[in-house]
Structure formats: C-alpha cells, structure tokens
Amino acid sequence: MIVNRDKVLKILRTVYPFNRAEPEQLSILADKTEVVFFKSGEMIYLEGAGAKFLYILFEGEVEVLKEEHQALQKKNHLYAGDLLGEDILTRKQLRQTGARALVDTLLIRISTPVLSRFIQGNPNLRVDFQFIADYYELLIKRSPRLDFKSEAVYYLGQPHRLYLAVKTSLMLLLALLLGAGVYFLQSGGIITAGTAYGLAGGVALLYGLWFWWNFLEWSNDLYIFTDRRVINQEQGVFLYEGREETPMDMIISLSSRASFLGRQYGFGDLFIKTFTGSLRLKNVPRVDQTRAYLDYLIEKNRTSKRREAKQDFANYLDKREGLAQENDFAEHEEAHPEMVGHIHSTSLIQRLLGLKRVQGETVIYRTHWIFLVCKTIFPFLILSGLLLLLIYMNSTGSRLLESQFVFWLLILLITAIGIWWFYQYLDWRNDQYIITPDQLIDVYRKPLGTEDRRAAPLENIQSIRYQRIGIPGLLFNFGTVFVKVGSEDFTFNNVYHPLEVQQTLFAYLERADLIEKRATLAEQQRQMLDWMDTYQQFNRDHAEDDRQADKYDKSE
C-alpha cells in the first residue's frame, strides 16, 4: 500500500493530542515523519532499549508486551489510529515494554528531534503529552484484573494523591496530639520514660497501620478507559470490592465538578451520563483534561463504527449477493473471539456444585454454594443426628427399637427431615440467573409453588457493576452483580466469581448490540440497493423512450 503525505496528514488530524495542534504545525510534522512496515510476528522494539521514536498505527494490529516472572505478559492491544511507544515521553526514555506486530502493519514513525520541535512549536500540547506519559507509566506498573484480550486500554488512572493526603491528615493530627499528651505526661512525672516510649510506639504503630490501610484502598481505586467501555474499580482492604462498567455506546454526555481545593490542584469528580443514570469517577486528577480525552475516545468509537458501516456497505455493493450479511457476521465474530470464548469455560467448583451451567449459547448461574450450606445445615444436622441415634440404638441392642411405635417414629422423622433437606436444596437450585444471546432472565421458583420470572432484552442494558462485601464475600469469592436495564434494576445475588459474571454479561451485550446493528444496517443496505436498482431501471426505461422520441423527430 502506498502511503502519501496527504494520508499521513489525515490520520495525524485524528490522533490525540496531534488533533489539537495548529494546522500549519501538523503540515510541517507530516513532512518530517516516516512510514515503516513490519511483518506479522516481527518485533517493532524491545524492552530495555532506548526510546528513539513515537509511533502511530496507520494500519494493522500491535500487542504491547512486558516481561514479568520470566514470561512475556500482554499489556495492551492496539489498532489503527493508536499511539505506540510512549516511553519517548518519559524522563528516562527507555523502553519499559516491547511491541510486536500481530499482522502485517504500517506505522507512522516520529523521531525524538522531530517530536521535540513539534512540541516547541505547540507549547500548549506539552501538558497533553505529559498526560499521556503519566497514564502510560501507571498502566505499565499496574495490572488490573480484567480479561481484556484484544481490547485496547487507552487510559488508566487513580484518585489524586491529595485525596489520600487529606484523608490521612486528620488521623495524623490526632496521632501528633496523642504523642504530645504522652510527652507532657512523661515530663510531668506521671508516667515513666519506658511507659511513654511504649505509648508513643503504640500510637505510631496504629497510625502506620491506618496509613497503610488507606494507601492500599487508594491504590486499588482505578479508572479505566478502553475502546469499548469505561470502568470504575473500587476495593477496600478486607471490606468490599466493586466494579462498574458503562459501554462507550451508552454514553450521552460528560460533565465535571470540582471543589475549591480541587480547582487549585486540578482534580474533581467526572460524571458520565447514560440514558438512565450516571457513573461518577471521584477525585480524578486533571479532571478537565481527562474529560476532554474521554470525549475524544467516545467520538473515536463512533467514527470507527461509521467507518466499519461504510466498509460493510462497500463490501455489500461488491458482492450483491444474499449471503453477504451472513459472511459479514462470521468475519466479525472471528475477529473478536474473546467476546464469548471465556464464557464456555467452567472451573471444577462450578461443575461439581452446579454454580454455572452452559447449554449451547445459554449460561445459567446459581447463588454461591455457601448459601446452599446455610439453607441445608439445620436439616442436615438433625438428619445426621437421627441417623446416628438409630445406628447407636441398633448397635447397642436398645429395647426402644423393639417398640414398633418408636421405630416407625424414627423412620418418619428421618423421612420428614430428609424431605425438608431436599426441599431446601431444590429451593436453592431453582433460583437461576440466565443469560441468553438476546435476553437476561431472573428466575425465582419455589418447589411445588409459584415461579417469578423476569426478563429483559440485552440491548437495553445501560451499565453493569458488581460488589463483593465483607470478609466472607472476599474470602469465598461471591458477590452481587447489578445490571441497569432501562429504568429497572436486575440483580444476580450472591453469585460465585461475580467478576466473571460481569464480563460474561458485557461480552453478550457486545455481541447482541453488534448483531442488532448489523442486521439493521444490512436491511438499510438492501433498501438502498433496491432504490438504486429502481433508479437505474427508471433511467434505462426513460433513455429508451428518449431514443424513440428522437427517432420520431428525425422521421418527420
């Protein structure tokens, strides 16, 4: 493929932060860049090497790799229009990662001197490039527990450091006051020096534990922007864990709010509004810049969808066959196997206890096994006691068993308790959370009783979040998944591995949205082709009439 200057300039105008530069500066930059080609599987640069170039993907796919525990770990997956090699923007300018082409790839390459002159010519972009460098370094250092696979991660952030300082300063002030009190007690001879040192050490230890606790909570709070969703992750040490996701397609507006202190230090709350509610990201550093960047990502997502629609229509025009739609579906699903690939896998615990069952494209979840134990523990203990009593009486030759009344009473009690146990088991088993390719179903069914079934189409999902609360939830890995469907809330209560359930829901939502949009697009394409055929036939018919009219004129 021949890449001329105009094509390079066109893509520069769409890539952040180059799209914020002056047009004449972009034109100069386009003259100074190079276009390089890498074959599939070829390394673009290696970890540990000097960073000499910043890259922009013109065409192809690239994975970003980092060596951890003597193995290469995938850190990101990038597509056309994405930045690559942000190490050039850091202080050390050393490659913290490696990059490998996944397919034949074309890259726009910008050298360090060219980039430096460009930034000097656009000093207002200096903060934008620093913004990119900061979130890149955080992404490399942190590894959020999300199965992104081929999902591009464009931003990773956490609450402003000043938020942590303010949160811990009050306890620090209290610790200093207690330390001062201990000092005055010791200087007044009320307590001995050894006691004073012990009390001071205790106060310092308590504050250290308090600071460590809050630091871990602060460091576990993350904001993640990908090419498909916005994620807000929160985790308190031994207390709770939560994650909320909002698809990019569902976002309708962004706004921010900052306190007086936030305005002075550039942080605030970012509000992401959807059709039915909003997602709040608290104490976001550089909140105005983050909002502008997220706005850019939303528009980039929409532009990508429009480009795909145009390409699909071009392919449809080329084929002009009824099977074109099915081929398009197959191509797209093969391009994104991660959407549903992990859904069909089940762990040993899930298989043994029936916590998750896959039937074709339908996934069925049940509440955690610990709730089965809670429901059946009392009948189980009573039943076990009665059986042990019966065995003991039989082994000791108790005369009570000779009584038909006592014998049949024990049998009746054992049978009744067994039925009670089985009823509780069925009550647990009949509560199901079902995900189908087009529906979300919540089933509550009492044995020999009523059934309450709620269903909602997947395409109406606005947001998905989950929570694991308390030490039992974190220890046994269960929690509740909250799904916002229109103005209604669906909850998957106390399910095993709620993160997996959330990811399954998101994968099904993506596929349902894809199928619906592509079906609508295919129908629109068919209508347009019918109109074009009708128009062409109309022109041919009128052209024939015109020729006949000309023939009559000449004959006269």
From TrEMBL:
Pfam families: cNMP_binding
Xref: CDD domains: CAP_ED (cd00038)
Top-level division of the source organism's lineage: Bacteria
Cyclic nucleotide-binding domain mapped to chain residues: 17-126
Keywords attached to this entry: Membrane, Transmembrane, Transmembrane helix
Coiled-coil spans in chain: none
Organism (species): Pelolinea submarina
Record-given protein name: Cyclic nucleotide-binding protein
InterPro entries reported in the protein's UniProt record: cNMP-bd_dom, cNMP-bd_dom_sf, RmlC-like_jellyroll
Sequence intervals crossing the membrane: 162-184, 190-213, 369-393, 405-423
